[in-house]
Design brief:
Oligomer: single chain
Strand content: under 5%
Distance between the termini: 56 Å
Helix content: 55-70%
Shape: elongated
Structural class: mainly alpha
């Protein structure tokens, strides 16, 4: 297998920010498992941009992440951030 096709795992918190980026840009929250696919896609797109290459990049999203909201909240600290914003408004 081509070593360039293998993606190295990234830090969990950084990895789970990628589905949130996907949500902001595409309007869909993917399941956390899809974060690796999104990471590989972003890496490949950046590599193509650096090389000036146009390429169609297909990837898989395994499902929505709404069942995983508690996990997203816990790992990314969204709950405390939301609480801080609410407290600042009060």
């Amino acid at each position: 297998m081509d070593p360039d096709l293998l993606h190295q795992p990234v830090e969990k918190v950084l990895l789970l920010h990628l589905p949130l980026m996907f949500l902001r840009t595409e309007g869909f929250l993917p399941a956390p498992e899809s974060a690796y696919s999104i990471a590989c896609t972003i890496d490949e797109a950046l590599k193509c941009k650096e090389q000036g290459v146009e390429k169609v990049i297909a990837f898989n999203v395994s499902g929505h992440g709404f069942i995983d909201m508690e996990g997203y909240t816990e790992v990314l600290g969204l709950e405390s951030e939301t609480m801080q914003k609410a407290a600042a408004k009060a």
